[in-house]
Recover the amino acids of this structure.
C-alpha cells in the first residue's frame, strides 16, 4: 500500500509542476486568457472520457493561440484474467491552434493501474503500476459565440500494455467545453 501512495504523490507532483509552468507562461505573455470546463470522449485522454480544465492564451488577432489542458478520468473496475481495480487517468496536454480552427497538440496521460493477481494456490497479491501514454493529436476546433467550443481530434496512440506488449491504436475524439469566469 505504501508504494501506491508514492505513485499517487509522484503523479500529483508532475501535474502540479506542469500547471505551474504553463501558468508562468500566461504571466510572461500579454495574451488574454480564457478558461473552460469540458467533457471529452475518446480523444487524447487514453481513456474513454475525461473532464477537463482548458486555458487558452489568445493573442489580439485571435487567429492563432496556445492552450493547455488538465483533466481527470476514472474507469470502474473491469473483469478479466485478474480482478482489476478502478483506474485513474490524468491527461495533460498543450495545444496550438492556427487559422482559428486547425489544432495541433501533444500530451501525456499518466495513469494508475492496480491489479489483483491470483496464483494457482488461491493466493492473491495486489500490484500498482504508474503508466504513461504519450499522445499527439491533430484536430478541428470551432468556438461558438466566445462561450463554448467544440472540437474533433484524431489521436494516434502508442503505449506499453501491462504484459509489456507494444500497442498501437487511434481514436477520433470529441470535446465540448463551456467558458467559465470573465
Amino acid at each position: 500500500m505504501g508504494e501506491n501512495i508514492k505513485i499517487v504523490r509522484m503523479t500529483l507532483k508532475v501535474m502540479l509542476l506542469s500547471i505551474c509552468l504553463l501558468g508562468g507562461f500566461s504571466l510572461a505573455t500579454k495574451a488574454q486568457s480564457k478558461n473552460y470546463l469540458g467533457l471529452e470522449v475518446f480523444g487524447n485522454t487514453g481513456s474513454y472520457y475525461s473532464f477537463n480544465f482548458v486555458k487558452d492564451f489568445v493573442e489580439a488577432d485571435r487567429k492563432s493561440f496556445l492552450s493547455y489542458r488538465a483533466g481527470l478520468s476514472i474507469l470502474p473496475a473491469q473483469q478479466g484474467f485478474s480482478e482489476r481495480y478502478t483506474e485513474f487517468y490524468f491527461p495533460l496536454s498543450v495545444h496550438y491552434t492556427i487559422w482559428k480552427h486547425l489544432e495541433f497538440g501533444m500530451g501525456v496521460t499518466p495513469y494508475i493501474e492496480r491489479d489483483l493477481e491470483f496464483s494457482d494456490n488461491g493466493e492473491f497479491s495486489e500490484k500498482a503500476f504508474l503508466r504513461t501514454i504519450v499522445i499527439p493529436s491533430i484536430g478541428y476546433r470551432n468556438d461558438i459565440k466566445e462561450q463554448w467550443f467544440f472540437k474533433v481530434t484524431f489521436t494516434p496512440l502508442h503505449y506499453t500494455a501491462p504484459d509489456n506488449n507494444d500497442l498501437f491504436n487511434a481514436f477520433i475524439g470529441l470535446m465540448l467545453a463551456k467558458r467559465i469566469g470573465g
The mean pLDDT is 76. Helices lie at 2-28. The longest strand covers residues 124-144.
